[in-house]
Amino acid sequence: MPKLWNETIEAHRRDVRDAILDSTAALAAENGLLSVTMSQIAEKVGIGRATLYKYFRDVEAILHAWHAREIDGHLAQLAEVRDRTEGARARLEAVLEAYALITQGSHGHHDTDLGAFLHRDSGDYLAHAHQHLHHMVRDLLTEAARAGEVRGDIPPAELTGYCLSALAAARTLPSEAAVRRLIMVTLAGLRPPRN
Taking the model in full, what pTM does it have? Predict the structure, then answer.
């Protein structure tokens, strides 16, 4: 087959897969996790059930794929923020701010049956993603400590735990202004001690 034909087919498959993921998450949020059926998903996407089964075996598989896509998107967003920012401290601050805002923005699905289901059954994937995030923040802290822009008297791994734990509180905050205050307080704890 010509290359253009293959690319067109792959793009179509990606579009259908994304539509399946988005439609399933929307149905689960609207109607509750237990009420979503493969027939409803197929109808919402505008495809036949047989086609849907070529992509996914059941609703749970679709929801896990949707969750993995969300997590991957968040990690990519953090990497993009890191890569476009200059300076060790600025890079660290930009990533921590983006992480806190992502955390605050995604709090809605954590408080639902969908959130409980996804976090209960996505252990390995979540652990891998959290480890990736931990390494990213630790590396940024190490770089900023070497530049004398954050405290160097505490190991970067411990500071990473501090930052991520503190910013996890963004999940419960009602506004972006409250998240920004949390970020400010967290960053204050990273300042080098005065001699």
Answer: 0.84
